[in-house]
């Protein structure tokens, strides 16, 4: 069940340590049809609605070449999430699981990831399907889907698969 910010039966919250600043930069903003956590899908779908990823300056030059990839990994900051739960009850039924065993938006560093289908690139805005975040969610990063990406640099010894 989708939560707002409540604590449920048997859930465990902790007092997090002071943040150590990782120096994250919000490189853009995601525009979606969802304005409430209760309405957003739990995971994005490739046939979901077209959403817009707006890239801020000075990062627009970093989009060069991205249209070669039909699927992108999108990383975003789930900015409305609480960050202090170590055990959570997704079903709100008293059964709890460790946060790192879940894809819940509630985590110490609320980073969400989705594989998005690239529909179009319009200037500095990407049109994609496959997202599940609220309108206005800050964007952290974009990468080609790893299953489509071939490294441009020469192979390294550790790249080779070891034979069993
Ligand atoms: N696909 C991502 C992942 O697996 O890392 C996120 C999955 S999370 C279960 C998706 C849910 O997070 C949505 O259904 C919504 O309830 C919630 N959510 C979406 N955007 C959010 C935001 N900006 N802040 C807090 N919660 C958000």
Automatic annotation (TrEMBL):
Coiled coil ranges = none
Superkingdom of source: Bacteria
Can you supply a Gene Ontology BP term from the record? methylation
Keyword flag Metal-binding: no
**Which GO terms fall under molecular function for this chain's record?**
methyltransferase activity
Q: What keywords tag this UniProt record? A: Methyltransferase, S-adenosyl-L-methionine, Transferase
CDD domains, sorted: UPF0066 (cd09281)
Domain TsaA-like, first and last residues per copy: 24-154
Q: Please give the InterPro entries that the UniProt record associates with this protein.
A: TrmO-like_N, YaeB-like, YaeB-like_sf, YaeB_N_sf
**Family membership:** Belongs to the tRNA methyltransferase O family.
This protein's name:
tRNA (N6-threonylcarbamoyladenosine(37)-N6)-methyltransferase TrmO
Organism of origin is: Labrys okinawensis
Lineage from the top down?
Answer: Bacteria, Pseudomonadati, Pseudomonadota, Alphaproteobacteria, Hyphomicrobiales
Protein encoded by which gene:
tsaA
């Amino acid at each position: 069940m989708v939560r707002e910010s409540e604590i449920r039966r048997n859930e465990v919250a902790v007092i997090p340590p002071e943040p150590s600043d990782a120096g994250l930069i919000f490189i853009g903003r995601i525009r979606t049809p969802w304005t409430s956590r209760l309405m957003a899908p739990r995971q994005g779908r490739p046939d979901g609605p077209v959403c817009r990823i707006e890239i801020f300056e000075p990062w627009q030059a970093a989009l060069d070449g991205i249209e070669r990839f039909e699927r992108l990994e999108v990383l975003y900051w789930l900015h409305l999430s609480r960050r202090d739960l170590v055990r959570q009850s997704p079903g709100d039924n008293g059964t709890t699981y460790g946060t790192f065993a879940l894809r819940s938006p509630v985590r110490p560093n609320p980073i969400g990831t989705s594989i998005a289908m690239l529909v179009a690139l319009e200037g500095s805005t990407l049109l994609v399907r496959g997202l599940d975040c609220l309108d206005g969610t800050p964007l952290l990063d974009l990468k080609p889907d790893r299953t489509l990406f071939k490294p441009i640099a020469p192979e390294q010894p550790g790249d080779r698969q070891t034979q069993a």
